[in-house]
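B., you asked whether I could sanity-check this one before it goes into the benchmark set. Here's the sequence:
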Amino acid sequence: MTLTEILFYAFSAVLIVAAVGVITARNPVHAALFLVFAFFNSAILWLLMEAEFLAIVLVLVYVGAVMVLFLFVVMMLDINLAQMREGFTRYAPLGIVIAALVVIEIGSVVWVKQLGVDAAPALATGAEGYSNTRDLGELLYTKYLYPFELAAVLLLLAIVAAISLTMRQRRGVKTQDIAAQVSVRAKDRIRLVKMDAEKDA
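And here's what the prediction gave me:
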């Protein structure tokens, strides 16, 4: 077993643990942090497969932008943790069935490879000086320009929706009206009362 295979299995195991932590964490913020950890391990797996551009994009875009926005929304929204736990227990049997199916599929792939059947071709290594970033850039901005722009518009809509959810009016929450505070006048807040002097008895 080569060093690359050892690293692949090690980071894959950590990735599975992080993915389990995402769906089992009771605190939404902890679940988001587990998801960040899973993204980092996925990026390392991309690096092992010589897909440096995808690894950097996974860290910069998902961890640096999307997950920060996700954490912002999770921490600002009024989330009912008790209701979330009830939903987890309600859908737990379905989740167990799906997890079992995934384990069976992965086991069948491993079993087929042990039989000597090459289910997938080996990864092609690039020549010296080859840059997959340049090839991806040429494809994105020539052949796939319109889908790329459409994805950017969808991300913009997601950001606007997250901000609108965060800034919504909630009952029982006291908010500041900056315009009303600035336009207030002294005579609206202070009342001067004239009284005659009183003598002590």
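One thing to flag: The radius of gyration is 28 Å. Otherwise nothing jumped out at me.
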